[in-house]
Amino acid sequence: MAESTLNFENFFNIIKGECQTSDTTTFSVDPSTESRLWDVPVATKQDVEDAVRSANEAFKSWSTTPFGERVDKILQWKHLYEPHIEDFTKLLIAECGKPRPVAAGEAKEILALFDHNVQLRMPEERIEDDTRIAITRHVPVGVVAAICPWNFPLVLSVGKILPALLTGCSIIVKPSPFTPYSALKMVELAQKVFPPGVVQIIGGDDSIGPALVQHPDISKVTFTGSSATGKRIMASAAATLKRVTLELGGNDPAIVYPDVDIEKTAPEVAQGCFVFCGQVCVATKRVYVHESIYEPFLKSMVDAVSRMEVGKADSPSTTMGPMQNKMQYEKVQDLVADSKAQGYKFALAPHPIEGEGYYISPSIVDNPPPTARIVMEEQFGPIVPVLKWSDERDVIAAANGTTSGLGASVWSADVSRAERVVKIFVSIVPASDVVSGNSSVIRELYDASPSPSSLTFSRSNLSDGTRSSCIQCLRAGNECILAGSRRGGDFSRFRRSHREQSSTPALSRANIGHGQHEQSRDDEKVIDDPIYAELTNPGDALQILAQLAANDSRVPNHPNDSTTFGHFPATPSAKQSGTDTAFNMGSQIESTQPPVLQSTLSETETLVIGVLGTDTVGRLIHHYAANYHTFCPLAPKQLLATTDPRGAAVDEPFLLTVLLTIASKDEPAYKDIHQHCWKYLKRHLLDILLATPSTLRVGSVEGLLLLAEWVPYMQLETCSYPNMFPRNLSAVEDNMAWSLIGQAVRHSYLLRLDKASFRETAIGESQELENRNLLAWIFVYISDRQISVRMGQSFWSRGPSLSTNFTANDFPSLRLRADAEHKYAHVLQATIELTQLLHNVHDTLYSCKERTTQMVRRGDYNRYLDDFRHSMSAWKDRWDGLEASPKLNCTLHIFKEYVRLYANSFAFQSLLSRAAHHTRPAGENRTATSGPRGAPSLFPRGIMSTAEGAYVLEAVDAARGILTITVQTSSQAQIRYMPFRFYVYTVYSAVFLYKADVFGTFVGTEHTEVANLVQHFIQVLEEAAISDCHIASRFASLLKRMWLPDGQCHSPKRTASSAAANHANVLSQHCELPQNTELLDDGIRHDFASSMQVPEPIQISTPYFNLFCPEFSTLESELVEYGLGSPDFPL
């Protein structure tokens, strides 16, 4: 064994067993003083190639080296290291800023790593029988790349090297540029033992890691660091099918029960939070303390932390040194500043530390909100939130409510309870560590896993002693009675409410056999008996069969009854006759002891209890009610006002999940929560698609309609189309909304909600359910008509009967005194009437392409538009004076103006289409090689000189009205949360105005007024957006490309003349206009491009659309399908 002669003043990359320098060097700094440390070489691309080539050559011989010889080499390396423990301790103090005890502990831990790894064995697994032998061997994978972090540079690099060497792999280490020194020296020491190329290390900048991960000759990557970097490594490694091992960050919770010894436990918890300034992946990042001991525990914890001394790492009295690097120092300072800005209370406030070094004093935040950054993010620094808890399920849900990996700890004097609780945590790899004293801590270390496991509780162990075999009966307060084996029957009549059982006297034969009661039962028998039901189709037959199975004890005595029952096994109650059978069957079943079953929580309960927590669910429901519900008051008030989210998860699983998904979609703080909700929602959507029995409820229809109004745009990327966002997402959102509404229509027909449109009263339904059914069906009708018009598709539903005139009085659930300010019922009636107008305009003007083309050519559509104007005038007289809440007033009038624009724009497009076709010479099919200087004006003698002038002016007025309403509305309180369709209506009007401007509608100052209005509208959209992903931001960006100069929309610059020439060229090429067409009048037409630049035309993979010569269609389909679905608006 070679003697160690390490020089701790010079540092090198190790390639092919040699110490190598580089033309470029870098250095780190001592975090205690910010003074410069030693220079280290920066590896080049060629260095990476040389190292990989050398590692592959070394692998050939090292992989065939006998296992025992590999172990001997590793032990030789250990013996070389032992004399240098103090040298490495000093090195760790300098590069990491660790207090001496922490640095010495890491240096000594290396010996334990050596001892542990050399004891590992990989025996063959041999299975044989008389005919064959199966042998399983563990073989080396090849060259391994190890990317190491900055917080424990020595332990984590050696911890990656030893397993690789033991298994016969060669390895290349890439240390962190913040802390490269100890790893460089450790690998340099290994060269005295191992053959060249077996262990190498190359330091440098951030380009080295990606080069190793992407290299085709690297077989495996092991990485320790942040989750974000880990995701990028996994994605990059997938291209070459590399094996990947990731050890990522953690947001580690500690749960403290009220039975702990506070004086002993609090200092231990504090030490787990602030060791090495919290820069440890398994350090405690969140502390949950039971409310009964919260104040004394917090005080004891503050006292313990206050005794920690912050100072230079090499000082013997120092407990906490500096942050390791400036980047992490600034991140923690930002978290501290954010907590202060949010007004959170500090149990231990940070104080400034003067002088050099990255020092931050420890701080404790007192019970911040569960969604605060300080709780949701991994701090990796000396600031920790302490939170109260009262309910065990809630605190477990809160502890699990992170996408980061966990090192969770449970502190309790009851070891069995601690062991039980940790088994509920997700993705567990058990590793127990019992702390001395009265408290027991069960510590679980496991990797990042965003998918929670289902929580299972035994119904026999509920705190109130309830014994129940199904969760629904438990929630409803009913005793659950297991029915006999009658498949397909409805046995809900056997469930007895506890209150009913206690208050209803026992019935006997003496008081039930005669008189009026008997007559009532006979009448009821005729009505309810399924044998009298209609049989018109196979579906009716199945319904009768199911009802007979459920009611077989009450089937009348027909001549063939005995033969019918002869096919079924007799039960004790079936042997009785008459009324005895009807009433004694219940007592017979109730006397049977129900079995105790293990019942798992439903998926929505798991989301509410095990992922989000009831407190978070309550806040999200309140956020939805305050910001979204007013726009579409479809969710039941009972659900929005619930104080029992768990019960809501049972009663309305899909609808509740929809509300949570919508409420979390527009808030950056709820991003992770939104992903969880969306994941669970997709499972519900599959059940709805398959129409499983559990989804056949009106809440499913309500949820589908609400989801169609607020499609969760952040979650629309799929593995099949990962790059679709945000280029053509607008069209995707409309497609999804159309599909969801179609599913709502089909579900409504399954539930026979369409009967509600005829004011039929369903027998046996409560008034509340009838009101919900009617409201759901009305919204189905409205949503179907509006989305179908937007998409240019056929209607999904027949809708309410045209003879039914629904008024505000038909919607009592919208006329509650608490909602008086909104005028929900009146706004709904006004919307129904507007929707009917929209429906008739669509059916009349756009019923089919042939009819539309015929009307355009003949120009005889004016009578329909005149009648529409008359109907719209009557609507205004009736509803313009309605004083609703600001949100509803805004959306109602936007919808009104949209209907006006939709109808009257027909005249404008008719004029444009006729102009395009009439200027084409008959029988000629050629493409003009040159064109006029500008796009043709449709109004060379003024708008009123044309037959369509009045309609065009009304369309322009409606479009301007939509934008005016929008810019006068609060962008952050109202526009931000509007349903998607209202964004489309507003953008529709902006595109119409652009098109009208291009073809000469505006002259003089009117053009400037319109351009300023659109620019103001774009600003409102930008203010409403909370991120670049928000629909308002995407629409604003697209409108900039259309309306604003290149300097503001980052498009290639062009001159006004070239823009005009392009307009003319496009027009002449696709409409084949003669060069001297009479449509052109440059003296009259105002070309908006003279003052604004226009983007260059681009090639897009969509059906051809020419802005200046369209085939006849609705403007909206042009906008969504071709305009907003493109990266640039085509000209």
From TrEMBL:
Its GO biological process annotations read: DNA-templated transcription
Instruction: Name a Pfam family for this protein.
Output: Aldedh
Annotated Basic and acidic residues bias? 515-525
Give its E.C. classification number: 1.2.1.3
Task: List each copy of the Xylanolytic transcriptional activator regulatory domain by range.
Answer: 737-813
Keywords, sorted A to Z: Nucleus, Oxidoreductase
Q: Does the keyword Magnesium apply?
A: no
Q: Quick one: where's region Disordered? A: 491-525
Catalyzed reaction equations: an aldehyde + NAD(+) + H2O = a carboxylate + NADH + 2 H(+)
Q: What class of enzyme is it?
A: oxidoreductase
A GO term, aspect molecular function: zinc ion binding
Tell me if Protein biosynthesis is a UniProt keyword of this record.
no
- Which CDD domains does the entry link to? ALDH_AldA-AAD23400 (cd07106), fungal_TF_MHR (cd12148)
Q: Where is the active site?
A: E247
Entry-linked InterPro entries: Ald_DH/histidinol_DH (IPR016161), Ald_DH_C (IPR016163), Ald_DH_CS_CYS (IPR016160), Ald_DH_CS_GLU (IPR029510), Ald_DH_N (IPR016162), Aldehyde_DH_dom (IPR015590), LUC3-like (IPR044086), XnlR_reg_dom (IPR007219)
Q: Which family does it belong to?
A: Belongs to the aldehyde dehydrogenase family.
- Please report the name of this protein according to its UniProt entry: aldehyde dehydrogenase (NAD(+))
Q: What is the lineage of its organism?
A: Eukaryota, Fungi, Dikarya, Ascomycota, Pezizomycotina
